[in-house]
Design goal:
Helix content is 29%, strand content 23%. By secondary structure, it is of the alpha/beta class. It has two domains: 190 residues, Rossmann fold (3-Layer(aba) Sandwich), CATH 3.40.50.620; 124 residues, TPP-binding domain (Rossmann fold). The protein starts with 20 loop residues before the first strand and ends in an 18-residue tail after the last helix.
């Protein structure tokens, strides 16, 4: 008989104490980004399959209003960690706060948005908890019998989908791209619990200090954009993107780009849509001079309406387009810009002029 006990197998690990599908709600200055609300929409369906609660984790200072908002977006319980040292995002205190709540409450799944802060925090929390982490997931599902999370992501240039499982550790963790999942309409009448989690950490114990936060002069928020105009190789250079920006401005849209255009240096990386860029879900997506390879498709395929403009009638983008225009984009784009500007001017002309403010002490009809 062996002196050593047999190694534990997957079947002998007891995870019965771990329950709940959690979402980390990223915020800055008390304003939440869209990724958390989108992931709550996905968590609701997963939690239903597992017959468990949807949890949200809100970390910051003076952010109780976000806990209430999380309930409206689908959370059954919100774990609120509110402390002055958490006023600004820093890896060390945020990771310790989230990890400590996970130790106490034992969730089986924790999801983070694949933003800069989300990726940073998720990796640190997984390291503290000694568990696995799937990065940049685009598909999530669960096995009700085994309670195992299936987190999938494109691989090998989008030619394959890899599904990652975390069988031997809890919680199961994943970061997911903003825009992949759709938020549920907020229901302000929903009832839920807010659990205030104790957290103590002296400022002197934190190795980093936030001296100042300087926002970008013009932030490109593709994840929240309702309309996006994207350009690719067919634009030929940075001058083509200047023309594209005029169309985007006329439509009130954000400007996106393909990986080819970004790699060529015609436009900055923050504009990139696709597998190695951002995943978006706008109402309108206009693809200009973009052939539509799978790497780009995975980033914009969930747009409500897709308009493709390309001189090649066999370009793959036309197979997924709602409307397609075959022709010279250098003639088509300026024509669309003129039409969009004219339409906007007509709409503005029909809008009634704002009423003049009544003088102080005047009644509703402007008389004193």
């Amino acid at each position: 008989m062996s002196e050593h006990a047999p190694a534990a197998t997957e079947d002998t690990i007891d995870f019965s104490d771990y329950r709940g599908v959690w979402v980390y709600i990223q915020q800055r200055d008390g304003v939440a980004g869209p990724a958390g609300w989108q992931l709550l929409g996905q968590a609701v369906g997963m939690a239903k399959e597992l017959n468990t609660e949807v949890g949200a984790v809100v970390v910051g200072h003076d952010v109780r209003h976000l806990a209430e908002e999380a309930i409206a977006y689908g959370a059954d319980v919100v774990y609120l960690v509110d402390h002055p040292v958490l006023a600004q995002y820093r890896t060390q205190p945020y990771a310790e706060a989230v990890a400590e709540v996970c130790r106490r409450r034992k969730p089986e799944i924790v999801l983070f948005g694949s933003t800069n802060d989300g990726r940073d925090l998720a990796g640190a929390v997984a390291t503290i908890l000694k568990t696995g982490l799937t990065a940049d997931g685009t598909m999530l599902s669960v096995e009700p019998d085994t309670r195992i999370l299936h987190a999938s992501r494109p691989d090998f240039g989008g030619k394959l989908m890899s599904t990652i499982l975390c069988k031997r550790h809890r919680p199961q963790m994943a970061t997911c791209r903003p825009g992949v999942f759709e938020a549920l309409p907020p229901d302000r009448s929903r009832q839920g619990r807010i659990e205030h989690e104790a957290f103590e950490l002296a400022e002197d114990a934190i190795t980093t200090k936030v001296i100042d936060f300087i926002p970008e002069e013009k932030h490109v928020d593709l994840a929240s954009a309702k309309a996006i105009v994207s350009g690719g190789r067919g634009l030929g250079g940075p001058q083509g993107f200047e023309m594209l920006q005029e169309l985007a401005d006329a439509l009130g849209a954000a400007m996106g780009a393909s990986r080819v255009a970004v790699n060529a240096g015609w436009v900055s990386y923050e504009h990139q849509v696709g597998q190695t860029g951002q995943t978006v879900r706008p109402k309108l997506y206009v693809a200009v001079g973009i052939s539509g390879q799978i790497q780009h498709q995975v980033g914009m395929q969930d747009a409500d309406v897709i308009v493709a403009i390309n001189r090649d009638p066999n370009a793959p983008i036309f197979k997924m387009a709602t409307y397609g225009i075959v022709g010279d984009l250098f003639e088509i784009v300026p024509a669309l810009t003129r039409q969009a500007r004219a339409l906007r001017e007509r709409q503005q002309a029909r809008e009634p002029a704002p009423a003049e403010a009544a003088p102080a002490g005047a009644g509703r009809n402007g008389t004193s």
